[in-house]
Amino acid sequence: QAVPAGSHVRLNLQTGEREAKLPHSADGNGDTREGRRRTRYRDAAGWVGCGVDVDANSFTSQELKEALAKMKASEKAERKVRRAQEEEVRKKFRPIEQLKEEFEKLNMKMETDYEIMVKLISKFNSSASTLDEKVAALYDLEYYVHQV
């Protein structure tokens, strides 16, 4: 059963019921309208039995619409922040294709770990490789797999 965020949940071993303790404000009462409505179901320690259906219509349609609007607005804000972070990373680093082209101009071949691992596997599977080459390929492959 769903309980409000921040609630504490326990299993009452005497009754066998699962119970939830609802959050309290500083004065000890529930700080929400729903919390005030549910106070009559609490025991002395503030625990509420989860098996009790307090109020099936605890939210109005307007409250749900407002909550959904807030969720959508926060999601849009999060997307903007994520895009800004991605753009910042793109400014700091160059794509691998560009780096490969620059290294080729310098007559240097840059290989990714994946490409090296494929070569090592093919060397290991090759019937033309000696036992020492296969053992060396396995040791090198172990290093690259460990990084992944």
From TrEMBL:
Leader sequence residues: none
GO biological process: protein transport
Coiled-coil annotated spans: 67-116
Domain of life the protein comes from: Eukaryota
Sample GO molecular function, one term: adenyl-nucleotide exchange factor activity
UniProt biased composition (Basic and acidic residues): 16-34
Record's keyword annotation contains Amino-acid biosynthesis: no
PANTHER family in the record: NUCLEOTIDE EXCHANGE FACTOR SIL1, PROTEIN FOLDING REGULATOR
Protein name (record): SIL1 factor
